[in-house]
Design brief:
about 280 residues, alpha/beta, Rossmann fold, 2 domains, 11 helices
Length: about 280
C-alpha cells in the first residue's frame, strides 16, 4: 500500500516540510478512507515527528489507532459457532466458505449453514463452495426462515461433533430494527443447541467510509466480535481498517485479497502498518 512512504521520504533528512506538503498528505489520507476526524488527529501527531526517526514514530502513531483486542478465534467448549453478518455485495458468503476452507485445512471438522435464504444465489453459491472444499452445507427452502436453517445446522453440527459451525446470514439491510430482530432470532434459536461464540462482520474495503457506516449499524444490532475485511487488494487503499478499529474498537481478524480459497488469511497488524509505511 505504501500510503505514508512518500511522507517518510520527504521528511527524512529535513525539518522543512512545507504547507503544500502537509496539504498533499491530508488529501492522500482522505483518499485512503481514513476519514476526516482520524486524518486530522493523525496530522496533529505527525507534525511532532522528527526527521531522524520518522518511520519508527509513524509506526507508533498508527499502532495506537488499532484495536488492542484479541484477534484470535473466540472458541467454544464444544462446537465453536460463528455467525457471519454483512450487507449483500461485500463478499459475505464467499468469506464464509473461505473461512471454512481455512479451518478444514487446519484439520477441523466444519459445517456451514446457508442462512441467506432471501438471496437464492447465496444458497447455491455456498453449496457449490461446499462441494469444492469438502464441507457439509445445511440449507432450506428458498425464501425460508433463516433461523430454521441455522437451527437445523446446529443440530447437524451437534450430531457430527463438528469443531466449527459457520452461519451465513441474510444480507438485506432495510432498517436497523428489522436487522436486529432477524439476527436476534437466529441467535436465539441456535443457542437452544450451542452458544454463539463469535459474530464476524464482513466489510468491503473498497467502499471506504460507507463500510464504516455499515459497521456502526451492525454493531448497534448485534455484538460484533471481529471483522473480515474483503477486497483489500490493488483497488483498495486500505485506510478503512484504521478508521474502523479507531472508531469502533473492533479487531480485524481476517482479510480477503482475491477470489480463490487461498486468498484469505489472518490479519497481521504489524504487517499492515509496515505496508502503509513502505
Amino acid at each position: 500500500m505504501g500510503l505514508f512512504s512518500k511522507f517518510i521520504a520527504k521528511i527524512k533528512g529535513t525539518n522543512d516540510f512545507a504547507p503544500a506538503d502537509w496539504k498533499e498528505l491530508e488529501e492522500e489520507l482522505l483518499l485512503s478512507d481514513l476519514g476526516p476526524s482520524l486524518t486530522k488527529e493523525f496530522l496533529e501527531q505527525a507534525r511532532k515527528v522528527k526527521s531522524e526517526n520518522a518511520q519508527e514514530a509513524l509506526s507508533q502513531i498508527l499502532s495506537t489507532h488499532l484495536s488492542t483486542k484479541d484477534r484470535g478465534a473466540l472458541l467454544g467448549q464444544e462446537t465453536t459457532v460463528i455467525m457471519v453478518v454483512g450487507v449483500n455485495g461485500t463478499g459475505k458468503t464467499t468469506s464464509v466458505a473461505k473461512l471454512a476452507a481455512n479451518l478444514k485445512k487446519s484439520g477441523k471438522n466444519v459445517v456451514m449453514a446457508a442462512g441467506d435464504t432471501f438471496r437464492a444465489a447465496a444458497v447455491e453459491q455456498l453449496q457449490t463452495w461446499g462441494m469444492r472444499i469438502g464441507v457439509e452445507v445445511v440449507s432450506g427452502k428458498a425464501n425460508g426462515d433463516p433461523a430454521s436453517v441455522a437451527f437445523d445446522a446446529a443440530k447437524k453440527a451437534q450430531e457430527s461433533k463438528a469443531d466449527f459451525l459457520i452461519i451465513d446470514t441474510a444480507g438485506r439491510l432495510h432498517n436497523k430494527n428489522d436487522l436486529m430482530a432477524e439476527l436476534e432470532k437466529v441467535k436465539r434459536v441456535v443457542e437452544k443447541v450451542f452458544p454463539i461464540n463469535e459474530v464476524l462482520l464482513v466489510i468491503d474495503a473498497t467502499t471506504g467510509q460507507n463500510g464504516l457506516q455499515q459497521a456502526k449499524i451492525f454493531t448497534e444490532a448485534v455484538k460484533v466480535s471481529g471483522i473480515i475485511l474483503t477486497k483489500i487488494d490493488g483497488s483498495a487503499r486500505g485506510g478503512v481498517a484504521l478508521a474502523i478499529e479507531k472508531e469502533l474498537d473492533i479487531p480485524i481478524k481476517w482479510i480477503g485479497t482475491g477470489e480463490s480459497e487461498s486468498d484469505f488469511a489472518h490479519f497481521e497488524a504489524d504487517s499492515y502498518i509496515q505496508g502503509l509505511l513502505s
